[in-house]
TrEMBL record:
Gene Ontology biological process terms, A to Z: carbohydrate metabolic process
One Pfam short name: Polysacc_deac_1
UniProt name for this protein: Polysaccharide deacetylase family protein
Domain NodB homology: 66-274
Organism whose genome encodes this protein: Chryseobacterium cheonjiense
GO MF terms, alphabetically ordered: hydrolase activity, acting on carbon-nitrogen (but not peptide) bonds
PANTHER family: GLYCOSYL TRANSFERASE-RELATED, POLYSACCHARIDE DEACETYLASE YHEN-RELATED
Top-rank taxon, per record: Bacteria
């Protein structure tokens, strides 16, 4: 198979790749520790994928590869230990967007925070202290309190970076990406950016059922990954931020499905995995 992602006219070939991929072509999954070189400055607008500029060649990503950022929200939580087992089985890196108060929730959560903290495969990032008390509309009405909440999480979790994800909202505030899923959260998002937070949302979420286990199977998620790249729906061309939650990983089926999802991505030999601090442009000083 010599087709590349760039050859999107070869639609059938592209979409059929998972079926044809070789089981022997296992990618080396160690995470690239180098920081990305800056990609070209681009204006990217949600709902206007055609406006996406063709990026400069990203020398850190081979032309036949795409980058996936596995991110897991709301930890430490039920399922955190299972998540770590999967990541180690697959030797793949990920980012944990932590909730400050969860680190004080129970002895187990305190222990899991220590596991996360010392794990080389894991990067820690800020998902607020209170998680908005799960009352999102009220939370985002008060931008000063929102910034304070993230500052509290940063201090209590001893985070060095100011990479943040907003609870309950898919918001992006980087220099070249501004996305607000619900307009009423816009002022709070702008305040976070002003306070130096690089706010990053997601391109694809593996959602739960109402029993809080992973919904659907890994094959469906793999198709969604393909579909996003094929239709240019990722915020930064060739880079996909994937989200799910530790707490959906408490039953054998969900654990198995996430494991298979990662295994198939690896075996396709089409993807590399990185931590969120390597997302293009995330280390730039905000303007
Ligand atoms: Zn959350």
């Amino acid at each position: 198979m010599t087709k590349t992602f760039g050859e999107k006219s070869l639609k059938k070939t592209f979409l059929g790749m998972f079926a044809l991929m070789s089981a022997t072509s296992i990618l080396c999954n160690s995470c690239n520790q180098k920081k990305d070189k800056k990609e070209s400055e681009k204006m990217i607008h949600k709902n206007h994928p055609v406006a996406k500029a063709v990026p400069k060649i990203d020398e850190t990503v081979p032309p036949d590869k795409r980058v996936i950022y596995l991110t897991f929200d709301d930890g430490p939580n039920h399922g955190t230990e299972n998540l770590l087992k999967i990541l180690h089985k697959r030797n793949v890196c990920a980012t944990a967007f932590l909730v400050g108060k969860h680190a004080y929730g129970s002895k187990k959560q305190q222990q899991d925070l220590q596991l996360l903290r010392k794990d080389k495969l894991i990067e820690l990032a800020n998902h607020s202290f209170t998680h908005a008390h799960n009352k999102y509309t009220d939370f985002y009405k008060n931008p000063v309190e929102v910034v304070h909440d993230f500052d509290t999480a940063k201090d209590s979790l001893k985070l060095y970076d100011k990479i943040a994800r907003t609870p309950g909202r898919n918001i992006w505030r980087l220099n070249n990406i501004t996305v607000t899923d619900l307009k009423s959260s816009g002022d709070a998002a702008n305040s976070l950016k002003k306070a130096g937070y690089k706010v990053i949302g997601w391109d694809l979420e593996w959602k739960p059922t109402n029993r809080m286990v992973l919904k659907g199977n890994h094959e469906a998620m793999l198709k969604k990954v393909d579909s996003i790249f094929f239709n240019d729906l990722e915020k930064t061309s060739r880079h996909l931020v994937f989200l799910t939650h530790d707490q959906y990983l408490t039953d054998a089926d969900s654990i198995n499905e996430l494991d298979l999802f990662i295994e198939k991505l690896q075996k396709s030999n089409r993807f590399v995995f990185r931590k969120i601090s390597e997302y293009p442009g995330i280390n730039e000083i905000l303007n």
